[in-house]
Amino acid sequence: MGMLLHVCANALDNADGQLARLTQRESRKGRIIDSVADHLVFVSIYLHLTLRCVFEGSSPAIWVLAFAAGISHALQGATADYYRSTYLYFTATGGRTGLDSSSGVRSEYQKWSWHQRPWDKLLLALYLNFTRQQEMLAPRLKKLRETVTELFHGQIPGWLQQRYQNLAGPMLKWWRLLMTNTRMLVLFALLLIGRPIYFFWFELIPFNLLFVYLIFRQETIAESMQEVAQKWRDLA
Hints:
The chain is mostly helical. It contains 10 helices and no strands. The longest helix has 39 residues, at 197-235. It is globular. The relative contact order is 0.13.
């Protein structure tokens, strides 16, 4: 029953995002709430998996294992979202939205009052932490975006769009493995064979190995694109 509810929740989660984009009603506030909801769902899953393991006789160390897996999950998800959003930022032909810098979010956060807008302030506080994590894990990509914004003021030329698409596009399918659908399938399979504890190890070892590899590849791509942008600036 729990997995069935999770499947339904995931289907609705995917549907509402697609609907918002199709109807052009996507908003940053909606993205933040969606992200918070996703994290709460997986906090519940991790908590109940841990309690199940404890009731079945696992060592109290299972709490440490679950916590480490949860942190890994959060970092992987944040970084995958950042690279996906950055890809859309560099390759989209329309308006460039959905990618905020931590400095911009911080400026807006400081303008708002806890007394007057507590809910919005709380959401921005969570989002500020989220954007900081993303930029911390992808410093070269952050620098590339800042350079491109400075040079082209949001009007990214076609040749740069195509180059980024050719280099970063093939990586998207691997980043998708670190998103919710893959975890849901792994968890479902492990529950079927009665080994839920393996989910934590799967998060810590295979997923983290893929995570480190993808960051290395993406940061290498960002560095090469940075060199191209700097050469263009020198020639301009």
